[in-house]
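Here is one chain, start to finish.
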Amino acid sequence: MSFGLNNFFKKILPTGLFYRSLIIVAAPTIILQIIITVVFFDSIWIKSNKGLTRSLVGELKMLSDIYTGEDRSQIDYLTEQFKHNFDFVIHVKNEKLPNISKERKYSPIDRSLRRELKSVFGSSNYWFDTTSYKDVVEIKVNSSDRVIQVLFPKEKVAPSSVRLFILWITLPSLLLISIAIIFLKNQTKPILNLSKAAERFGKGDFVSGIRPSGAAEIRKAAYEFDRMAKRIDRHLKQRSEMLSGISHDLRTPLTRLKLQLAMLDQKNISKKMSKDIDEMESMLNSYLQFAKSQVQEDSVAVNIGKLFKEITDEKNTKNLHLNFSNEIIFVARKNALKRCFNNIIENGLSYATNVYVSVSKSTNRLNISIDDDGPGIPENQYKDVFKPFYRIDNSRNLNNLGVGLGMSITEDIVKSHGGNIELNQSKQKGLQVRISLPL
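Its structure:
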């Protein structure tokens, strides 16, 4: 049961730190004010209203009894005293009580008046109206064969302190909650900035100039994150530069070997050795490509349709088919993303006849599907192909195409953009590569 309640509260409560903190601060204040208001309304306001109404009805009863007497001069004198001392407007009319009731069913004032008038005058000998006039209450009671109409200020049955009490309850609460919102904004803003920086860093963007702010713990976390980001960036840079330098340095002796082989008289040996050197050069190109994928590059707005059209023009083939209608803009590192798509398309064109690219957009994801009609790969090797230097034929025979870095580079680029890549069987009976990127 507790597990079910926990899930229920997780669904209805906000997920953001600011709004959760605001609930922690505001909820006790609001609950306390509600309790105070209910207690005041029940124990003070209702009792005060009841006492005022009972006193008023007693005065009306006295007035009704006066009009049952015979001494006219005494009646006039007492009527003037009521008007002067009790702020009553009194009229005596020879008419019947109105048939249309003006009582409000759920009004505390009307309920108190109804209860007290009924206990003193009976259920059919009174009529009152608290709504026709803004600040005046009208009451009519039967007295012998006449009707006594009394008009008096509404404050005689409604304590005037209610509005003032509600004002004092509401304004300080709103002021305190407003101050809490300002402080919470200042406290949660550094955490939000830190989370955005971490998200950018996780997507491969270069993060610099993080300014620690807020509480001491948040400042320390921001400072340590900045140090960690710089350390990781320095490590990646050194690795890329080392790999690039080694690959570049090996080109010089390979070029000399190629020149020397060209000068050999034994062409059979020269041809075989040249082929091996070409494969070694292909390996070095792959290493350089892998090193380039680690280089920092600024993110820009990329038109996905135009990017695939550029790749199609560069391939200059009719076997690459594009399928997308809407223009989709995606913020990414353009060269890295182009290298990623190029690797997949080149693999498809190398092992299959046709490659089909389809692009779609959901609410917050960019979905790219690249299918081919080639032989595909076994399902149990779907995860292995993303490992560096992995070959489908399980051998290191360099006479086969590639050195096994293409899909590793592709996965690295996709994940550095916060996306996912997976392999499936294509509708064309070949291999399907599905890429999902966050918008």
